Structure formats: structure tokens, C-alpha cells
Amino acid sequence: MATEVKVPVLPESVSDATIASWHKKAGDSVKRDENLVDLETDKVVLEVPSPVDGVLKEIKFSEGDTVTSQQVLAIIEEGAVAAAAPAEEKKAEEPKAEAPKAEAPAKAAAPAPAAKAAGGELPPGARATAIREGVDPSQVEGTGRRGAVTKEDILNYARTGGAGKAGGARPEERVPMTRIRKRIAERLMQSKDSIAMLTSFNEVNLAKVSAARKELQEDFQKTHGIKLGFMSFFVKAAANALQRFPIINASVDGDDIIYHGYSDISIAVSTDKGLVTPVLRNVERMSFADIEKGIAEYAKKARDGKLGLEDLQGGTFTITNGGTFGSLMSTPIVTPPQSAILGMHAIKERPIAENGQVVIAPMMYIALSYDHRIIDGKDAVQFLVDIKNQLENPNRILFGL
After folding, report:
1. So which residues are the catalytic ones?
2. What is the rounded CA–CA span in Å between residue 337 and residue 264?
3. Rounded to whole angstroms, how far apart are CA atoms 173 and 161?
4. Burial class of residue 223, CB neighbours in 10 A (0-12, 13-18, 19+)
5. Residue among 129, 145, 184, 179 nearest 18 (CA)
6. Of the CATH numbers 2.60.40.10, 2.40.50.100, 3.90.550.10, 3.40.50.300, which one belongs to the domain with range 2-78?
7. Is pLDDT at 146 greater than 90 in this prediction?
8. What is the pLDDT of residues 198-229, one digit of tens each?
9. In Å, what is the CA distance from 24 to each residue of 30, 73, 144, 181, 288?
């Protein structure tokens, strides 16, 4: 019985997807729920599992092709078993009579169809391209998922004569943007062209937050099964401040301002595909443990490429932490339709004046970029001061002060 493998139903905001890589080739045995192909959309990479056990009879689209919702990607012969190796391959394993020496160079002229990349079996689209271009896939450095060599990698290697891999005095390599990277570029340009963006700064003394984490870390981890990080303090402080300054949590829709009575906070997470911002919903109702668990779950999903479209949709405010990469100060970019984003930075011990004394304290610069069309400088500055006051006295966070 033949079973069709279709493109999943894509959300309204996603019109189509690109085939990133096939994990199986025609004739391979497949198991139910085994990942067959990765589809790259503007936001995430979707895995398409096999609906049944059987043999992958036919692949309808190659890597790099664009597909839409419910298009048939492949045909699986349900319950079938992969055929044994062709007789020709078996014969090839047997000792052969010595061939004329003159024929040897001709046989080595092109890579064999079953050539493998350095990271493993070559996907079908890349294999065909390698044969056509006369490229040895084992010499190509893969840029696909899990280091897979893609069709584009083969073409780039052929066009540059291997400069991207082999080096040279002035190596160059042309690599097409992924769909996610192109979407990020489009959103950033949309922000630049549509928002009157301004950034305000402040600094925070994190001595009391650091002391609270040190004092409560062991008990917190025993009780909740997860570490108490700095991010939960910032997320909770932001949620409290958003309730007091609702314009920071608002968005622009044409000539209207939409005020959101909830705090859905997007947390910026860096992946090998680019920056993604999964959403913690109703943060105003969440505990510190809920926040830490939510962030940890999203981080794991991002690393494993398991983030779904529903994880990324929505969000009324964003927090990004450039400090994890060593950034001391930056001006984060607002993502429409949101109107503001909070930037955290590296914690550095610096001398500061405190009660007439010079002391060394763990200090962090914080930045708020905002849409000046609806947010006045006074509101932005007071919002930052509110967060500063909560973090410098963590009891205010707990009591919503």
C-alpha cells in the first residue's frame, strides 16, 4: 500500500518552505516517526517524520526546491522491505581480471554515484550535483544541518575551485543566505524603515541579586530541579515594570495603539541558523522556577532544532542578553510590531560611589530601544529606572513594587 508524505499545514504567516535536506534516499527502509526531510521556513526548520514503516519508494522534490502546504513530498510503500543490493554491486565485490592500464585514468575521472561526504552519506540532491560538477564530496565542508553537505556547498566548491576549503592567498566563498537569515534581514530592515527608534541606557548594581542567588541556589535547585539564573530576575522585573508602564508593552497597528494587558516576553536565543525569539507567555503570572524552566526548555529546543512556529509567534516585549558573548554595551533593535526591547550586557566589577565610599560592585549596563512614535523619552527612562530599582532591591520583585 502506497502512503503519501505531505508538507505539514503551514501557518497563515508562512506561505511556503524550502527543502533543506533529505535524510533518506529512494529505496531506503524507513520506520514510523523517523525524520525523512528537513523543511526550512522563514522562522524555523520543520522535521517531517515518516507516517508508516516501509520503503521510501519515490522522492518528489530535491533539496533547494520550494514547497507549499500539503504538497506530496514522497511516496512510501507501506510494509515493504528494502531490496537487496543489486547483482551488479555484488559482482563488483568479486575479484576482477586485470584491466588494461590505459583504462584506469578514465574510470577515475568522475566521482562515483555513491560517493560520501566527510560527514556521512550524501543527500540525493547533493550527490547528483557532485557527479554533474565532477566534485569529490569528501573534500567539501558542509554547511547544512549537522554538518551535512548540501547542493549549494557542492556548487560553491565547484565555482571557487575549492578555495573555500583548500584556502589560498585570497580565498573567497559565496554562500546563499538561508531562509531564516533572509527573514531576519527583512525584519531588521523593516524595523529600520518603519520605526523611529531611540535607545536609553542605565546601569545596575547586581550585588544583591548575586548574593540572593548564592544564598538560595542550593535550595532552589533541590526544590525545583533547575538552577536560579540572572535572566529570571530580569524577566520578572520587566514583567512588573510593563504593568506599570503599559505603553512600553503596546504595539502600533496603523493609526491605532494596541495595549496588551498581559506580558508575553520574547527571549532572544542564538542558534547556528541565526537569532530566534521564543515567547514566554503571561510572565506576570509565572514564578522564578517557571521562568527558568521555560528558558531552559526553549534553549534545548533551539540547540536541537526543535522550536515550533507556535513557540515564536506573538510576544509583546523582548529581552536580549549580549553579555553572554561579552558585549559591554549595545543598542538592540526593536522587532515590529513590538515597540521596545531590553538589552542586557556583561557583568563587570567596577568601582562605584556608595554611601560616600568607593566600593567594587558587579555592574551591568542595560539598554532600552523603543519606538519613539508612541513611547516618550520620559516613559522609557522611568521604565529603565523601575527595572534598576527592582534589581538593586530584589524584594521589590517578589512583592511587585
Report:
1. 372, 376
2. 13
3. 10
4. exposed
5. 179
6. 2.40.50.100
7. no
8. 999 999 999 999 999 999 999 999 999 999 99
9. 8, 12, 15, 26, 43
